[in-house]
Design a protein that fits this description.
Elements lengths: L1 E5 L6 E5 L4 E5 L6 E5 L2 H4 L15 E5 L3 H20 L3 H21 L2 E5 L5 E3 L7 E2 L2 H14 L4
Parallel strand pairs: 5-8
Antiparallel strand pairs: 1-2, 1-7, 3-4, 5-6, 6-7
The site of one zinc ion has 8 residues, from loops.
């Protein structure tokens, strides 16, 4: 399974393929080494049962959306519509602006879900079955500080 680990020291996103029970990853930014413990389910990409980073069992899902892609689509639409607007084609300009937002919506709807660890924010991508619930702020409020105390951020 592909896991994106958040470096406990500098918060850098570190993608790694967890295919063994013990995996080590070295942060490219700050050099900190993080040890991962992959469970059988994680290694075989069948389920996210336990987090390889913090050993937590609490996860949520969200759309695997890269905000940069969305911004790029809207920005492109805005530039094209500005050109039409400049030449006095207001209606086409608004149409282009609207279709940019629509494409954004379609892209968003087709996105897969990604599972995220409440405690350490590791992200899990793969063919496994999504079983986690959507994000719950109350749960995050309890679990996040627990992990941050553990890695001595608080
Ligand atoms: Zn780091
Ligand atoms: Zn975790």
């Amino acid at each position: 399974m592909e896991v994106t680990v958040r470096c406990p020291q500098c918060d850098a996103a570190l993608p790694i393929n967890v295919d063994e029970a013990e995996v080590k990853i070295c942060c490219q930014r700050c050099g900190r080494e993080t040890r991962l413990k992959g469970t059988n389910a994680v290694i075989s990409d069948t389920a996210v049962d336990s987090c390889p980073v913090c050993q937590g069992n609490d996860f949520y899902i969200r759309k695997d959306f890269d905000p940069k892609t969305g911004v790029a689509i809207v920005a492109t639409g805005a530039i094209i519509s500005a050109v039409f607007y400049y030449f006095g084609q207001d209606i086409i300009a608004y149409g282009v602006l609207g279709s940019g937002a629509l494409i954004d919506l379609i892209v968003y709807g087709r996105l897969k879900n990604v599972t995220i660890c409440y405690r350490c924010h590791a992200e899990f991508r793969g063919a496994y079955k999504r079983t986690a619930d959507v994000f719950d702020l109350h749960t995050a409020d309890i679990l996040e500080p627990e992990w941050e105390r553990k890695i001595r951020r608080r």
